[in-house]
Amino acid sequence: MSEGIVVEGLWKRFGSFEAVCDVSFEAEDGKITALLGPSGSGKSTVLRMIAGLERPDRGRIWVGGEEQTGKTVQERRFGFVFQHYALFRHMTVRQNVAFALAVRKQPKPAQRARVDELLELVGLAPFAGRYPDQLSGGQRQRVALARALAPQPRLLLLDEPFGALDARVRQELRRWLDGLHRELGVTSLLVTHDQEEALELANEVVVMHRGRIEQIGTTDEIYNRPATPFVAGFVGSANVLHGRVSKGRMWIGDAAALAAAGIGEGRRVRAYVRPHDVDLSAAAEDPAGDGALSAAVERVTDMGWTSKVLLRLPDGQSLVAQVPNERIDWVRDGARVVADLRKAKVFPTDGPDRVDGVDGTDGGGPPDAAADGPVLARV
Amino acid sequence: MSAREVSTPRLSAGARRRLVHAGLITTALAYVGLLVVAPLVGIAIAALKPGWSAWRAVFADPFARHAYLLTGIITLETVVVTAVLGVAVALVLARDRFHGRAIVSAFVDLPLAVSPVVVGLAAVLLFGTGGWFEAWFSARGVQVLYALPSMLLVTIFISIPFVIREVAPLLQELGTQEEEAARTLGASWPQTFFRVTLPNIRWGLLYGMALTTARALGEVGAVLIVSGTIAGQTETATLYILRAYDEGHDATMYIVALTLALVSIALLAGIEVFKRREEKELGT
User: Fold this and answer.
1) What distance in Å separates the CA atoms of residue B89 and residue B163, rounded to the nearest whole number?
2) In chain B, alpha helices (H)
3) For A279, phi and psi rounded to 5 degrees?
4) Do B185 and A82 touch (CB under 8 A)?
């Protein structure tokens, strides 16, 4: 059995709401694993069940080869970092960090030494006498981390630790946490809705949606080989193109655009392709080759060293390509081009539209993707 | 411009606003001054006028001393009971979702809505001759009515809401995250309560206890009915004042009244001072 975290068949229901359905995964010892998903996907509930703050309806949890399922929160002794810090507001920074040692009745000099060491580690030694109210959000979260690390937990659980901070501080703390993890090597499970955060910090990512696991993989696998339409749409930004399968190919309008092997004849399908995976070339006489479609350029937006090119396909669907400027200096508004879509992933459109979560009907896709404006092309 | 505005004296909008403002402040000051401060000052003057000999006479009177002692005992026990049970009820009301929660919440306020006299009558019904619980207690030789137990009981009853109403909203606002954090850090249930929850609600709790003290010190209606007012036995300080009033001992009456009022005021003021000092320290 793995020395890290093993979760097997976890279920949790709140009233009539199925928060977590049959979740199983393993997380490697000494690494950071991310639980990624939109809000309401059940990722925080999984984390809280591992911590012992929530009792699973079914399923088992092992950490370091020991079963944890029946243990209390206190017996598990995992470090937990909350999104809103949850610092003890009536205690100083020093008292906060010393809390776990104080309740274990460690001798005072040992407490002092450990707290000093941790405050040094998180760079807050000069603030030891302050109260949480007197610190910035980033400082508070570093205190919370020091407090969680004080009793030397074998596992660190982070619940959206940077979610309440503004973008610049979030970047900074992310880099800092990465460095800290390299130094300490404590097994960590990070819950986040921010795909960038998950990809940057984690070795492995567990993508969750509506209480279920969509895909488990390395950042490369999640990003470049999405297993489900949800992952394709949620991780990174992607164009969504609609079509139908005929003779083993996906048809967009009357062009046989993409290979769609293994999908039943006549089924409706969706193709997901990232803007920077769309390649543009000058219009040929007959572009209907493998994965190529002719398109009209509607608008070119210069982003510095790349440009976003908004394209209109013959059947009216729109598509965004993001291309380095030097490769498209010939592209003008209104020009006809050939869009190479060979890197697109094709998924059947099955029953209730599972990808809808991406555009916010499920309570939140990644904010970054939404801010990208016309990147997510939809009908 | 409307006709009405033309007919009013010429004042700028700012001046008018200042005038309204000054009017409101004057009203508030007059209201509090006439109804709260003036009687207090009046009692203070009346109590101090007879001089120290009158004070010495009051504190030498064994009935007066017994009345103070009894009020002290009842108040202390009431404060302890309502604080402990009040925090427990506040925790339940703030944290648990259960059927009947709204009803419990409404019943908590009942003692404020019902006249203490009614509470006293209810106690007589329950514990008086032929009452529901009378047989059980008298069989065990426990005298409830016209004795300390019933006086304590009615005083606790009318003091129930204060701690709960101060503490429950605080608990709700605090949420459970700090407590969860304490548990993940290895704190047991009592450690979590005494190190995290209690310090977070302490000012609300102290304030509720001060209000309870004031209420218990001043209670007269319910106690008047259940105590039987036996001087030197079941006569509290307020009942002592009532008797002094009936017998025309004005100086005695004012002196005891002033001491009771001063204790309540000192408590509330003291808590306010401590709270402000700590808020300053915390920089909030």
Assistant:
1) 9
2) 3-7, 13-32, 38-48, 52-60, 62-95, 101-113, 116-127, 134-139, 148-174, 177-184, 189-192, 198-218, 221-227, 237-247, 250-282
3) -105, 140
4) no
Helix, strand, coil distribution of chain A in percent, nearest 5: 30, 30, 40
CB atoms near residue A324 (< 10 Å): 11
Q: How far apart are CA A254 and CA A273, in angstroms?
A: 19
Q: Report the largest interatomic distance among the alpha carbons of chain B, rounded to a whole angstrom.
A: 84
Orientation of helix B62-95 relative to helix B237-247, angle to 10°: 140
- In 3D space, the residue among A327, A337, A334 whose CA is nearest the CA of residue A299 turns out to be A334
pLDDT band at A361 (very low <50, low <70, confident <90, very high): very low
**Cross-chain residue pair B180–A53, CB shorter than 8 Å:** yes
Which residues pair with residue A251 across a beta bridge? A244, A256
Nearest-neighbour CA in chain B from A105: distance (Å): 11
A368 Cα to chain B: minimum distance (Å): 28
The residue of chain A with its CA nearest to that of B188 is A74
In degrees and rounded to multiples of 5, residue B90 shows phi and psi of -60, -40
Please classify residue A13 by burial: count the beta carbons closer than 10 Å to its beta carbon, then call 0-12 exposed, 13-18 middle and 19+ buried. middle
A86 touches chain B (CB under 8 A): yes
Q: What is the pLDDT of residue A368?
A: 36
pLDDT at A1 over 60: no
- Global confidence as pTM: 0.81
ipTM of the complex: 0.80
Q: A93-103 and A137-149 helices cross at what angle (nearest 10)?
A: 20
Cα separation, A91 vs A129, whole angstroms: 9
Question: Measured between alpha carbons, how far is A369 from A236 in angstroms, rounded to an integer?
Answer: 7
pLDDT tens-digit series, residues B99-109: 889 899 899 99
Length of chain B (residues): 284
Q: How far apart are CA B144 and CA A85, in angstroms?
A: 53
Residues 6+ apart with CB under 8 A from B133: B126, B127, B144
